[in-house]
Amino acid sequence: MLTAAVAVWGPAGLAAAPAARAEVVDVAYRCKTKIGDRNAVSPVDITAKREGNGYAITMTFDKGVSDSPVELPKGVMTPRAELVLGGADSGTVKVTGAPNAAAIPAMTPIRIGTLTGTYTPKKDGTVTFTAGLLTVHALGMDAALCTPGDKPAPSLSLTVTGVSADPPAGDAGEALPGGELPRTGGTSATTALGLLGGTVLLGGAGGLLWLTRRPHPARR
User: What is the pTM of this model?
Assistant: First the structure.
């Protein structure tokens, strides 16, 4: 079921063709828990929003994936997950959720809620995001490790523009030869001594001679 189509804005603010497609995917999780193995199917939705050079990634679960054998007090359960990248990129993106806002009764499904993270593309292309390992951390331990089974389909397909490796241009004047920008403001004594020491070291004997043989003032 198609749930979102995101347009990427160009530098001039003009909307380009839709560059993202998010789809709710039913993920069959196989969980290893402290009370034995558990299987659960949860609809998973992954979306992206452009922020600077990267994307804010949001992963949402519609159902719980495991039960807790004991009551979990407020704030003791924190979920995290990995999103598997495909297409023009590889590896994983980590997303995390906030601690549970209310106590979770014993033997009731643990609702994961919303997890967030950041993805910064390195090159141009279309990247897919697929649900990966889900970890439920509770009471000071990883209480459940849930692995998607049956190779779920990607929940998000995103057309991205990679971040340039070139450093940003300075705005404090024209660059000096060698790419160094002119310095502004005063120079501290420590910095001046450091620069002087560097001159002697790089100049070798010639630099030392220049420092020791200063011209005498003209005699009257």
Answer: 0.65
If you ran DSSP here, which 8-state letter would residue 12 be given?
Answer: T
Torsion angles phi and psi, residue 202, rounded to 5: -75, -30
Q: For residues 107-136, b (16+ Cβ closer than 10 Å) or e, as one string?
A: eeebbbeebebebebeeeeebbbbbbebbb
Q: Which two tokens stand for residue 43?
A: 């609809």
Q: Which residues contact 89 (CB under 8 A, 6 or more apart)?
A: 121, 122, 123, 125, 127
- Give the per-residue pLDDT at 16: 39
Among 49-58, 69-78, 202-211, top mean pLDDT goes to 49-58
Centre a 10 Å sphere on the Cβ of residue 77 and count the other Cβ atoms it contains. Answer: 23
Q: How far apart are CA 179 and CA 125, in angstroms?
A: 31
Closest CA to 143 of 117, 104, 115, 116: 104
Least confident span in 31-40, 63-72, 143-152, 196-205: 196-205
E strand or H helix at 200: helix 189-212
Whether 21 shows a pLDDT value over 70: the answer reads yes
**With contact defined as beta carbons under 8 Å apart, do 46 and 155 qualify?**
yes
CA distance 50 to 62: 24
Give the Cα separation of 30 and 206 in Å (integer): 72
